[in-house]
Amino acid sequence: MTLRGGDHRSGKMPAVDALEVLADLCSGDQIVVTNQGSARILPKLRRRPLDFHYNPSTMGGAVPLALGLALAQPQREVLVVSGDGSLLMSLGVLVTVVKAGVTNLAIVLLDNGIYEVTGGQETPATPAVDYCGLARAAGFASACSFQQLADWQARAADALSEPGPRFIRLAVQTAPNDYLRFPTPPMDEQLAQLRRALGAAARS
Fold first, then answer.
1. Given a cut of 50, is residue 6 above it in pLDDT?
2. What is the full DSSP assignment across the chain?
3. Quick check: is 195 in a domain?
4. How far is CA 20 from the centre of its chain?
5. Tally of structural domains, the chain
6. Interval 24-51 mean pLDDT
7. What whole-number distance in Å separates Cα of residue 170 and Cα of residue 180?
8. For position 182, what pLDDT does the model report?
9. For the segment 154-200, what is each residue's pLDDT rounded down to a tens digit?
10. 3 domain-assigned
11. CA 62 from chain center: how many Å?
12. How do beta strands 105-111 and 121-122 pair?
């Protein structure tokens, strides 16, 4: 795998390569929700009817949306990718996920310490917040953190198969600008594809 962008000596993994690991592991009937930076990166890596890239800017909205899908589709695994800035907008959602009782939901947090798509401002959480500790305190069945790409590549499949709900923090570099400029697929097109895919599964 070729490392894409960023300072490879930073001690964090390239964001694009981190998401490519997810793209390679997601199963055919899994719903994937992205937001903000990841909503621009993942569509450039792959496109599936069950991938929903949730923009324009809805900071804090991706995890609640994924929770709703997990409740409505209990037979499917749902994976949501959130940035740290977005999660900070709605930390209470971690408690809500646990209270809802879902076990088919995984939250993958891309933690780069900045509000990436609004100008690169540092978040107020840098560098002290233990996101996995917050998830455990909220009651998540599993929570783990990855700093290095090789470790994430080696252990991602196991982390995603832990009891749910799952919380996975990935320490990532800032994504390359050419990925962040990539347009999110049209919302009406995505909604139509998602509805068709979910409707076809309900009829089968």
1. no
2. ----SS-TTSSSB-HHHHHHHHHHH--TT-EEEEETHHHHHHHHH---TTEEEE-SS-TT-HHHHHHHHHHH-TTS-EEEEEEHHHHHTTTTHHHHHHHHT-SSEEEEEEE-SEEGGGT-EEPTTTTT--HHHHHHHHT-SEEEEE-SHHHHHHHHHHHHTSSSSEEEEEEBPPPPHHHHTSPPPPHHHHHHHHHHHHHHHHH-
3. yes
4. 12
5. 1
6. 88
7. 18
8. 73
9. 999 999 999 999 999 999 998 887 777 777 788 889 899 999 999 85
10. no
11. 8
12. unpaired
For residue 38, pLDDT beyond 90: no
Rounded distance between C-alpha atoms, residue 169 and residue 159, angstroms: 11
C-alpha distance from residue 196 to each of 28, 31, 77, 192 (Å): 15, 13, 18, 6
Residue that is written with structure tokens 């450039």 in the block: 44
Per the prediction, the chain carries an average pLDDT of: 86
pLDDT above 70 for 37? yes
Determine, yes or no, domain membership for 5.
no
In a domain, 7, yes or no: no
Query: Which residue range(s) make up the domain with 198?
Result: 15-203
pLDDT, position 1: 37
Residue 194: CATH number of its domain:
3.40.50.970
pLDDT for the residue numbered 200: 59
Q: How far apart are CA 128 and CA 81, in angstroms?
A: 21
